[in-house]
Design goal:
Blueprint lengths: L1 H10 L1 H18 L14 H13 L9 H18 L2 H8 L6 H13 L3 H14 L4 H13 L3 H14 L4 H14 L2 H17 L4 H13 L3 H15 L2 H14 L5 H19 L1
Helix pairs in contact: 1-2, 1-3, 2-3, 4-6, 5-6, 6-7, 7-8, 8-9, 8-10, 9-10, 10-11, 10-12, 11-12, 12-13, 13-14, 13-15, 14-15
Length: 277
């Protein structure tokens, strides 16, 4: 009870003091005919005085909602629900409120997944009219191009988004994946370069590690491909697979290289964790 009253004090000191007084009066009525030793935790006058003093000293706390964070949170939930739910169900929910930004975002994703690409891109146009330079709407557009076999267009739009958000490693990963999708040697070289940059920024991104390993393999660096694959499986918690690829990397990489030392570290750590689990 004391803890609850103190929490109330932070929000509304006056009402919390009134609540304390009511509680004390109720206790007096309940304990008129009781021996003090019959109560396990007597409510001492001193304790009441101490809590009242703390309440008086407490300042009323004002709470404010950050509208920008609230908006971004709504967008995140909209994207998550649209990608995870049945697209037909999503379309039923948003049909009545098509002009709303969140509804348009959900509708674009649902039409893309259905798939109904013509209407998906038409809905995306409406969405982008609301915020033409929004990098995350560009990201969605790039993903739609990539997943409909238009990798070159995807690279272009992901690159534009990356210029707006140069430190966003997710966009770099998308660019790398798009280059790999073209399946030509010059694009494989570009994919490796951009994915290595993404690795420097976010080395524990499983999706990035998966495609970085592929980029290394496409460029003939099997040792590094095995090492990155070992890192990938470490993150997934598959320690047996991590050990297998780390051993392969050790056999290929130069004895004095940083990569070989990293492979040894992965072997040591995965072995210990694997045994403990």
């Amino acid at each position: 009870i004391s803890v609850k009253l103190l929490r109330l004090a932070q929000i509304d000191p006056i009402n919390s003091i009134n609540a304390m007084n009511i509680f004390v009066e109720q206790e007096k009525i309940l304990t008129i005919n009781q021996n003090s030793y019959s109560r396990t935790h007597p409510f001492s006058t001193k304790r009441t005085q101490n809590i009242n003093e703390i309440i008086k000293q407490s300042q009323k706390t004002e709470y404010f909602m950050d509208e920008k964070l609230n908006y971004l949170h709504k967008r995140m939930l909209a994207k998550l629900s649209a990608f995870s739910e049945n697209p037909v169900d999503t379309l039923k929910k948003v049909d009545a409120i098509e002009k709303d930004e969140i509804a348009l975002l959900k509708k674009t994703i649902a039409l893309h997944l259905k798939p109904d690409q013509k209407n998906a891109f038409e809905t995306l146009k409406k969405l982008k009219k609301l915020k033409p330079k929004d990098p995350y709407f560009m990201e969605l557009e790039g993903q739609m191009y990539l997943e409909t076999g238009q990798a070159a267009k995807a690279i272009d739009i992901f690159s534009k988004a990356s210029k707006i958000l140069p430190n966003e490693s997710t966009l770099l990963v998308w660019i790398g994946i798009s280059h790999l999708a073209i399946e030509k040697s010059p694009n494989d070289i570009k994919a490796l370069k951009v994915l290595k940059t993404a690795y420097d920024s976010d080395p524990i991104n499983p999706k990035m590690l998966k495609y970085l390993a592929l980029a290394y393999a496409r460029n003939g660096n099997i040792g590094q491909a095995s090492l990155v694959t070992a890192e990938y499986f470490m993150l997934l918690g598959d320690f047996k697979a991590a050990q297998m690829h780390a051993k392969r990397a050790q056999k290929i990489l130069m004895s004095s290289s940083v990569g070989r030392q990293k492979a040894k570290d992965i072997l040591d750590i995965s072995s210990k964790i694997g045994v403990n689990n």
